[in-house]
Amino acid sequence: xxxxxxxAIDLRAGNVVRLRQGDYSQQTSxxxxxxxxxxxxxxxxxxWLHVVDLDGARDGSLANFRLxxxxxxxxxxxxxxxxxxxxxxVQRLLDAGVARVVLGSVAIRQPLQTMQWLQRLGADRxxxxxxxxxxxxxxxxxxxxxxxxxxxxxxxxxxxxADAGAVHVLCTDIHxxxxxxxxxxxxxxxxxxxxxxxxIQASGGVRDVADLHALRDCGVAGAVLGxxxxxxxxxxxxxxxx
Length: 242
What we know:
Belongs to the HisA/HisF family. With 242 residues, the protein is α/β, with parallel strands linked by helices.
């Protein structure tokens, strides 16, 4: 299996930002143009870009749609999510040039509907986001930009999506997100054993090339990089060599 390094751009009100552990009150803003940043990532050799509409994730709308559409017009293949709640939302992003739509809250709250979309739209065009937080001994799956608790767990939903024909799953350890504390290798090792057929994208905590090697060695299909790139702690060209 190939290992793909995917730089990320998180958007809030059209600006590039990062949150700590998904907390909207703990935001770091970066004075960089999103389109220029995407072009820089492409120039460094990236082929994919992960885009999160943070406004949409919390409010249930495609708040940064025009900017996502512009990013999809760059040389990068764009994987985008945040605020996708209906099949019309999915189709709107695909029509705008997004290569793969990320389904988070809707995939947790309405799995049967989401599984129908996998069949109708094609599993390679959708990515199921099972972002998780350990609580009470279970890997919980919060929604609405990680602000709302939900009943299903990672152990319950991941196998259901594997059986339904999903291909791509994004899994963020929320406690590690934006913290530069290293990825949760044990979580991804466990998830790989739970659903060996899925292509898992790991997100949260990556600091350096050593972390990328550890993720690759545990068998995930790729890693999403945010803060480490934005703050110059990790060189994208070096990361891509993984």
